[in-house]
Amino acid sequence: MAALFLAISTTCFVFSLESTHAANTLVIIATSPLLAAIFSRFFLKESVPLVTWAAIALALVGVFWSLHDGLGRGNLKGELFAAVSAVCMASHFTTLRWWKSSYGPVSIWGAGVLTVLASIPLASPLSIPREDVGWTALLGLVVLPTAFGLMAVGPRYLPAPEVGLLLLGETVLGPIWVWLVLGETPGSSTLTGGALVILTLALHGAYRKLRSPGLPPDR
């Protein structure tokens, strides 16, 4: 189940980027922590603390503020793909939380296989320029497996909404990494919104640590 949800989410994310503005896609997908909170409450009967609801709302404001300059009149099909991607990402985290297994990364391998099978008919792998092969290999063999593998382990120790909340850091840190490495200066709204998200994540993490220092790791 977790592998299937992630494969659908990944595939729909790519289709969304092809059909609408990237900012529109990212803002819609940023709702996944909110959806994960709802799913956890409904399906897993886990109570979501008020402070987590507040952190999700504040982080969503930060994401919107960071991306609003890039928002435009989108394509309905692309935004529907983004919505499906958000729902499936939240379902992925919720399923992993329900499973609470040390074999969570297995779902990442399964999702990779399913995504490959779905994309083979549409792919042209030999069209990648020779100078980009190394970067593509680094992305596919190191960066993405490490990132998704760690995310698959997270729900064993944290509620699904909190894992999704931490994932919002990716949305706002991306432009900052590009700025630091490639020198592309982000706008003031990107920096302001990003700072709000990072501050929210830091304060929520600190509050959670102070409130439950003696609890087991899955509480």
Describe the fold and architecture.
The two termini are 23 Å apart. The protein is globular. The longest helix is centred in the middle third of the chain and has 24 residues. By secondary structure, the protein is mainly α. It has one domain. α4 packs parallel to α8.
Shape: globular
Assign a percent range to the helix content. Answer: over 70%
SSE string: HHHHHHHHH
Counting DSSP H or I runs of 4 or more residues, the number of helices is 9
Low-confidence stretches: 215-219
Instruction: Let me know the average pLDDT.
Output: 86
How many domains comprise the coordinates?
Answer: 1
Number of strands: 0
Main beta sheet: strand number and arrangement? none
Distance between the termini: 23 Å
Radius of gyration: 18 Å
What is the SS-derived class? mainly alpha
Instruction: Kindly estimate the percentage of residues that lie in beta strands according to DSSP.
Output: under 5%
How would you summarize this macromolecular structure in one to three sentences?
With 219 residues, this protein is mostly helical.
Question: Can you give keywords for this protein?
Answer:
74% helix; 219 residues; mainly alpha
Describe the secondary structure blueprint for this structure.
Elements (H helix, E strand, L loop, with lengths): L1 H18 L2 H8 L2 H12 L6 H18 L8 H24 L5 H15 L13 H21 L6 H23 L5 H24 L8
